[in-house]
Amino acid sequence: MSIREDLEELEKKTLSPYACLSVNTKGRLKSEEQCDIRPVFQRDRDRILHSKAFRRLKDKTQVFLTPEGDHYRTRMTHTLEVSQNARTIAKALRLNEDLVEAIALGHDLGHTPFGHAGERALNKVCPLGFVHSEQSLRVVDVLEKDMKGLNLTMEVRDGIVNHRTEGMPYTLEGRIVRLSDKIAYMHHDMDDAVRAGILSDDTVPDYIGSVAGYKTAQRLDYFIHDIVMESRGRDDIHMSPPAEKAMKDLREWMFENVYRNPKAKNQESKAENLIESLYHYYFNRPDRLPAEYKLLMEKTGDPLERICCDYISSMTDRYAINLYMKLYVPESWLDKQAI
Question: What CATH number was assigned to the domain covering residues 3-21+35-338?
Fold first, then answer.
């Protein structure tokens, strides 16, 4: 018996009857030989962790554009916090931590530069539309590994594409990530807003604070504990009605006071204009796309609109800014700026 098979047997003995076992996977898009050491979901986790798309998350905006300070979240630190929250819940419920971690690490791989401002810009300018969760799936299916894709399991793919509010993964592990994503961004975006001087740590209204806590750490602890206690021994992931309402109320309050706050968002129109300009540039000059994207269009027959979104959404904030400067700013001006 291989080490992988030993680990699969251990899952059967130790995990909840509601867990998604590695041996019960629905498989991959393309069949391949099993690893002799790692079960399938651990293997997926490793593939995502070693991908170029994952590394690029470190230079993509979470909420605050060009913040002054080293402690603001990026898309990568957001991803890691989602993963940690999800693993805490999965471990307490004896669900599959490898599956949870793979979904969490991959859920935002398709996110644009400049956070949701970049996503809005591509969705506005591309007639095919743009949704980052769908792009994340495209990254792992098509774009990664020199346009060969990562060939992940169906369970991980399902968790990635359905992590948004509108989705509902079919595994409990995927549902944990879906909630952990919301818990993470409401926690750390509040923390960053406090750091930016937009809010103070105890400014949430009483109808939220009296239920979930007035401090960010208190709310994080409250929501995670509530999910664990409400989901124990059940074939679904639940929140209590008070916690569910508090999360909904907190999300609406965050949109009003942080996500639409002019102090936090006063640069977003510039970022959106930058992304739209890059899209128009390459749509009108497809011969100037990088060679791999032109080959991808020939190979798949995908429309130019989608290929332009593939290229632009893959960029980091820094790469997009530098490319825009190169394409639209006269070289003499760049030289003067450098001086």
Answer: 1.10.3210.10
